[in-house]
Design goal:
Shape: globular
Strand order of the largest sheet: 1-2-3-5-4
Mean pLDDT: 83
Radius of gyration: 21 Å
Structural class: alpha+beta
Largest sheet: 5 strands, antiparallel
Number of helices: 6
Oligomer: single chain
Strand content: 5-15%
CATH superfamily: HIT-like
């Protein structure tokens, strides 16, 4: 029988930096799904898109504010730089926007793309809206448009077999870069 003793204190320094052969994928923001916590979908305090602009920009993950609409980081990004364009007004459909809201919604979309181009040079974009829960909207009651920057090789097998998306940058760092590169 082999004597298996724990490493002595003097020996533990030799273990630091030794790989166990596994990579780590840290996704602390996903704990909300594990715990079954989902954002509520009411206007006012429960809607995340109504709450975000009431906070300081860094706390609310706001990238830019307009008169009628704002740009916010997606809390569950597909890629670094995944932002949402939202009207301040709690409406669910694009056709419910006023003409002024529609103009600013478009202008902020263009500005977000310019900031993403300047900060991270993506090779392309996915831009779109899911209106209604049946269409895939996570927060169907408050209109929002996704802008997802894309790079060659940004997708791999993890979303397909593990329902996990690897995002290589912290959301706060990406937000800071976008603010720094926001067009004047």
């Amino acid at each position: 029988m082999t004597d298996r003793t724990a490493p002595q204190a003097a020996d533990t320094g030799e273990l630091a930096g030794v790989s166990d052969g596994f990579e780590r994928l840290w996704t602390p923001h996903r704990i909300a799904y594990i715990r079954g916590e989902r954002p509520t979908r009411k206007a006012g305090d429960g809607c995340p898109f109504c709450v975000a602009p009431t906070r300081e920009d860094a706390e609310g993950l706001i990238v830019a504010r307009g008169e009628h609409c704002f740009v916010v980081m997606n809390l569950f990004p597909y890629n670094p730089g995944h932002v949402l364009i939202c009207p301040y007004r709690h409406v669910s459909l694009y056709v419910d926007l006023t003409d002024a809201e529609t103009l600013e919604f478009t202008a902020l979309t263009k500005a977000a793309i310019a900031a993403l181009d300047a900060s991270s040079q993506p090779a392309g974009y996915n831009i779109g809206m899911n209106q209604g829960e049946v269409a895939g909207a996570g927060v169907a009651a408050h209109l929002h448009q996704h802008i997802v920057p894309r790079w060659a090789g940004d997708a791999n097998f993890l979303p397909i077999i593990a329902q996990t998306k690897a995002v290589p940058m912290l959301i706060e760092d990406v937000r800071r870069q976008l603010v720094e590169h926001w067009p004047a």
